[in-house]
## 1
Amino acid sequence: DILVDGKVCDCDVVVTCQVGDPVPLQVKLTNWSKHSVGPFALTMMPYQDYQNGVHNYELQDAITFVGSNTFHIDTVKPAKDSVYFGALLFLYTGDFYLNIKFREDNSSRELPLSWLCLPSVHIRATEPVA
């Protein structure tokens, strides 16, 4: 489950926030298998989609994380979950996306696609209301 600013997100929803206000993020990983899983590294990567096949990940002047964008997940037991909190701060207006990926910790090999990525979250940063 992914929550942005307290709202559950799916790939069809655009979350709107204001430039300059921290936007709380929450990612909950639930283990539905019969075995413990982990360790993993959870990484959140913001990008802009130029709608021509190009994704711009060089956004250090437009977005900053409050805290870390990578979290270590040790082990998640069967039928249990693990929740991670962070926040984004948008410095400019625009449409941004957030990739959320899980990787095996201490390994460069990515997990199979069924485990690798959650759907991208679409966030629209707007001017602050005066």
## 2
Amino acid sequence: PAGLSASTFPAKLWRLVNSPRVRSVRWDSRGQGLLIDRSLLERELLSPGDAHGAGTEGAGPAPDSFQATHFGSFVRQLNLYGFRKVPGWVGSTAPGDAGGWLHFRNPNFRRDRPDLLLRIKRLTRANRQRLAAGLEV
């Protein structure tokens, strides 16, 4: 949407989840959350051995799309932008299996509402204080 910088984490995530070339991140069945395959995301987008996309031969976005090389850093970005893991959700593999699908939600990240992306703000210390005081970020 107009007014949203294409370089922000939410904008990049939106492009990836809607890209037919990305297999590691997809919408849940209701279009209100993300399903993330950890092992595939690590290979597809976070590969530290290929930080500038060399050798991908146009197979997908550059691995440095999120300037992260570890899954934990990616999840930290999700958390900083208000995404929360859906508790008790079990993916396609056994519970505790690091290779399974993980489910994350943010009320302002929905398949049918790209306009809501403008409401997603990074939770900085100042923004957390504003939220605690009942103010809008």
